[in-house]
Known about the structure:
This protein is an alpha+beta fold. It has eleven helices and 23 strands.
Amino acid sequence: MASTFAGIEIGKRSLMAHTQQISTAGHNISNADTEGYSRQRVQIKTMDPLYRADLSRAETPGQLGQGSCIESITRLRDELLDQRIVAQGNQESYWETREKYYSMIEDIYNEPDEISVRGNMDKYWQGWQELSMYPESQAARQAIVTRGESLAESIQQRFKSLSGVGSLINGDIEGSVRQVNDIAKQIASINSEIVKSKAVGDNPNDLMDRRDVLVEKLSKLANITSDNRDSDEFMVHLDGHILVQGHLARGFDVEPVTDNSGYSKVVWNDTGADAHISGGSLGALIELRDVDIRNEIQSLNTMTMNFADLVNDVHRNAVGANNVTGIDFFSQQPFVTDASGNYDRNGDGTNDSSYVFRFTGTNRLNPQEKVGLDGEMVLSGKNGNVTVPYHATDTIEEVIARINDSDGEVKAYLDRNSRLVLKATTAANAENPDFVIRHVEDSGLFLTGYSGILSMTGPEGAYDFARADAVSSLRQDAQFAVSPVQNPAAYISVNQEIKTDVLSVAAAYPVRGRALSATVALRLRLRQSATRTS
């Protein structure tokens, strides 16, 4: 016989269950503006009846119902959609970050024509044109010096602006790394709390909401994915590597990189291996700094080096109004003070490398003359060394074009004395130094006896920068120049000797003991197009 209080008990359970529903509805309403909050729903089920079939029971026509009770309080959330949002969330922040910094880069180039690099270079060439018409004018020489200084200052200013953006990005990278580490630790801590709550049969909805918010924030910083297949070990992956596993969280460190303008690289803090982050705002920042800004600075450095080299090549072979010759118009500071280019690359106190920018052969060459030799040159390239063949029927001009058309990071030309010049470019790989010839080798005689750069053929006579005194591989009378400072655009200036005495501006070539006026000015004018495309 059922208890007289059975109806009261059923009513009490019903009131308790529906009160919880009302409380949950109030909880939902009060958290309408809470970030990441998921609406919750109370699931009600029937209470287990009396006289179950597996127990001894009284003689009754059926089971006695006991009313209702709460089965669970669940979140109304689509987990599949959440995972897709996390997986794609990095794209929006990636492009937003790039847009922000590209606007800053555009502002650097959208400078007034009066102070731009292009405007000052045009004025510089105009100065040489005026000097070619009035070679006896000291005022025209002073104008060239003044315009040269303005051009150098505009180049330096552009470098400072670009490097300033790079430094700003580098600071944002370090800040973003700290943010990623902090969020990963918070997710791991919440994972631990969620597991404890589930162990006693609860649904930790609010904790899971907090975790989802953190995961979404993390997805905007980096290209992550989440994995909830194991309810006791929620995982976050970044680029295929585990970032968070249950209550354990990995993180990143930043390490300075040698010869990288003081910039740092991102590494895993437990293994020290390089971290590859390709999405999110952090991935965008790394790409902006290491690719976009680096390319812009390299282009500016390349233009500066080629421009100064071309001007100096003509100017040092000419004579000024004061009969002084052999002076460079622009000053180029060396990367190392050692005359042979020896440099301590790994910082252990011992020179282990040779930083040389340019080789100049000893023999005069005719660009239309056939080589008459067969062989292969091996030059340093973007990814390892590249091979450049030459044949007996090739002309000097064709061999030079083949070197320049290759994927090598060594370029060739004939100077005004018709001697072969090999010159380093910027390096595609950030681990390689810019403006450093890393490898030159010839299986034949083109670079040895023919042009007069190397002293021996084959691998045993190769020049390789990964050792000190590598210039010993060159012909004894071959000329070479050590590498410039890391960023030539930051240090270009007009030679102090010329600024002190403008009569040192060389505007003529000595011919049979006499100065042939204005020829240098005209030659510099003709080289204007070459510097614009370099």
